[in-house]
Amino acid sequence: MNKNNDLHNIYKSRRILILGCGYMGIDVALRLSEAGNIVKIMDSDPNTFSRIPKNMIDSNRIQPILGDGVFEDDIRRASGQKLDVFIAATGITSVNIMSSQKAMHLVKIPKVICVVDDEDVEEIYSQMGLQILNRRKLAVEHILMDALDQK
Amino acid sequence: MYTIILGGGLIGTGIAKWIIEAGAEVTIIEMISGKVDLINASLGDVAICGDALQISDLERSGIVRADSFIATTSRDDINLMACQIAKEKYGIETTISLVVNPGSDNFFKMLGVTTTLNITNTIIEGIASTTAKLFVEEV
User: Fold this and answer.
1) For A25-77, what is each residue's pLDDT tens digit?
2) What is the reported pLDDT for B53?
3) Residues of A in contact with B80 (CB under 8 A)
4) C-alpha span between B46 and B62 (Å, rounded)
5) Whole-prediction pTM value?
6) Of A94, A96, A141, B92, which sits most exposed with the smallest number of CB within 10 A?
């Protein structure tokens, strides 16, 4: 019984909104789309959408949405039906922090991931219940492991 | 009574001036060094150059002994995050924030900001109340 549930969970396609059409947002979008999820990517600058491979947009596998993630209305508009996952991956920590909290507390998206670059910020907001991903720390840890052959 | 003000614009420096005249202590955190020099030349040494979202800059402002924190930048995301850090990390009870987005006041309060002032709503209401007559006649 449990096993079936697990399998169901793994193969279930999720509705995911990524905030920030930078290189990180696009790479995450591509991987999530390849894995069979329904992926939307939001940015306030329409020029950024030209970075998304054209075939992914034409085949509707990644849907670009013009909007500003710090506005609750824009997150709701992008959500369409209910979203399963929200990922704040712009290059600006304060924008990620604010939009993540709106997604979590106001739009009530079940899973919210917030990308930051700062260890102090990671500590403060982890304690407040936000799921934080510190990309700077992750990169440094990987470089250290590689440099010291500890993989 | 010690207050930290984020943002050395007209609003931030105006509040600082008022606090100094009231005889209390204040520090302004401002990112642009030119503005910091101007403030210090006119108000005495009250401004420091720094980024209020950096813990090291916050601590340089003496936030550990502050009683209140006022965020006056024009960016909601920066104001909110600075107030949250002041409250959650340094236990500052009184946090006051300017809010630009007309619909965000309750969100700020829900996340623990004590007092908000919505500049957009304030301006719209101010203009509406002084010009209401003009539009009523039209209808």
Assistant:
1) 999 999 999 999 999 999 999 999 999 999 999 999 999 999 999 999 999 99
2) 94
3) 94, 97-98, 101
4) 12
5) 0.88
6) A141
Helix (H, G, I), strand (E, B) or coil at A84: coil
Q: Give which of A141, A145, A113, A115 is closest to A129, Cα–Cα.
A: A113
CB B90 within 8 A of CB B63: yes
Residues of chain A with C-beta less than 8 angstroms from the C-beta of B54 = 118
Which ranges in B44-118 belong to alpha helices (H)?
55-60, 76-90, 105-110
Quick check: B124 pLDDT over 80? yes
Q: Give me the interface pTM, i.e. the ipTM.
A: 0.87
In this complex, do A94 and B111 lie within 8 Å of one another by their Cβ atoms? no
B77, B85, B111 member nearest A70 (Cβ): B77
Q: Per residue in B56-88, pLDDT tens?
A: 999 999 999 999 999 999 999 999 999 999 999
Task: State how far residue B8 is from chain A, nearest Cα, in angstroms.
Answer: 19
Interchain CB distance below 8 Å, B77 and A120? no
Span A85-93, average pLDDT: 96
Kindly state whether A102 is in contact with chain B, defined as any CB-CB distance less than 8 angstroms.
yes
Looking at chain A, which residue has its C-alpha nearest residue B52? A94
Domains of chain A (ranges; CATH) run 9-148 (3.40.50.720)
| pLDDT cut 90: percent of chain B above it | 90
Whole-angstrom Cα distance, residue A80 to residue A91? Answer: 25
Radius of gyration of chain B (CA): 17
Q: Which residues of B44-76 are buried (b: 16+ CB within 10 A; e: fewer)?
A: eebbbbbebbebebbeebebeebebbbbbbebb
> A116: distance to nearest CA of chain B, Å?
12
CA distance A147 to chain B (A): 29
